[in-house]
Amino acid sequence: xxxxxxxxxxxxxxxxxxxxxxxxxxxxxxxxxxxxxxxxxxxxxxxxxxxxxxxxxxxxxxxxxxxxxxxxxxxxxxxxxxxxxxxxxxxxxxxxxxxxxxxxxxxxxxxxxxxxxxxxxxxxxxxxxxxxxxxxxxxxxxxxxxxxxxxxxxxxxxxxxxxxxxxxxxxxxxxxxxxxxxxxxxxxxxxxxxxxxxxxxxxxxxxxxxxxxxxxxxxxxxxxxxxxxxxxxxxxxxxxxxxxxxxxxxxxxxxxxxxxxxxxxxxxxxxxxxxxxxxxxxxxxxxxxxxxxxxxxx
Length: 298
Fold this sequence. Notes:
Layout: E1 11-15, E2 23-27, H1 38-41, E3 50-55, H2 70-83, E4 88-92, H3 94-105, E5 112-115, H4 126-138, H5 141-155, H6 161-171, H7 176-190, H8 196-200, E6 207-215, H9 221-226, E7 233-242, H10 245-248, H11 250-261, H12 272-277, E8 294-296
Parallel strand pairs: 2-3, 2-4, 4-5, 5-6, 6-7
Antiparallel strand pairs: 1-3, 7-8
């Protein structure tokens, strides 16, 4: 049973009408804050939804939980979804990893949109492996370097310069020593998990895996094969290069949120108790309002 109280403090940015029938939990990537979802929250098609963007505890300068395991983060995020009455979760990068944990080990039963995610150490950027190895010798110094590289990465994006400055300020809230601890725990847990298809096969809710053609998120050949037996999974490929999917492609992600919520049963508005005690009932529904380059796994 998911607790209806919170075991940790969350930094939240909430938008939309409080009485809205549907709520969406938005989990940003590692070292990012809830502010990274401002573009998505501004999409007109989502105006009638409650959106709860939540900085992962320990990231962007927020206090970290004592247990940094991905499984514990999934438990904490499932609590938050319960308290905030969220029907579904959209995660980005590390936030996707935690959203997956919510569903596979923490009892969350709603639809998932996993964007820019790496589901194994082999799929994750080799830069993180190098930083972690160097940090074993030089301490937090490599993560000070990582923090300095975020600005140049932003300059390669299509994000307006003024907004880049805002995101850079959010990222610089991170402390190198804390980044070292957080990323080491993340890499450790990535190396322990079964193939993504094996984890998703047991889920009843629909799952969308979204990645850019170049940049955000990738699936290894083995991972793609493992998804072949998952009829509830759709892989969406956004053409081109992107390292900041929620900021550069908010309209596409907003359409996916609408599509995902359309699968949720037309029941009365849920309460925290409802989410804790009842499983999500699903029904077929219409498609989203725009066409996307997608690969269906069946």
